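Re: your question from the hallway

Yes, I did run it. Sequences:
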Amino acid sequence: MPQNDKAILSRLKEQKVEFVIIGGVCGVLHGASLVTLDLDICCRFSRENLRRLEAAVKDLHPRHRLTANKLPFELTDHLCDTLKNVYLNTDLGILDCLGEVLGVGGYEEVWRQSVPHRLSDGEFRILNLDALIAAKSAGGRGKDLDAVKLLLAIKERKAQQNELF
Amino acid sequence: MNGKYVCPPDAGPAWRAAVEHGFDMSLVEDALRLTPEQRLEQHQRALDLVLEVKEAGERHAAK
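Structure:
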């Protein structure tokens, strides 16, 4: 299955989904030499925003990838009110949408601890380095803790070069 | 020259710790010279390769 992060991001932008890029792709954008197989975002879990998310992936055969029968991603108002996270398989790859980030907080806090990055499709918000390090540390998995070592080195380097992070 | 990464003279403790941990920091140095857009494109190329190898492995295992 392909994984085209840029194309997914472009669709989210087009539908005006409120989100912040987190996880491995966020690390890559900060300069980490990691390969990550999915795109993780933190988004506002309001009905309106989830409907925008639905519109962004509607024609990509989205399915809840962690459900036993890979149920199609079809929202109802009730579902919008009860969902905390959405883990999707789409024709453009995996898109995991979280309502909150361990070690950082809910969407508002994640947004507050994010910085804008300009890509060809416009401006996107990504977790700042400190928040990404906090999130990866809180995750506690081996690969996350490895990534923390790399991110701390990048933070140190950027501080030496007086770069904003 | 003989394959061993040499830390920049001004490398701090976190950078040296990452080298000690086994990360190829020359890749990070290269990535830090790129724009975020270029980093994403470079990641996409690496990812495409990983997925291609993964699929080939799965096809081989299915035989």
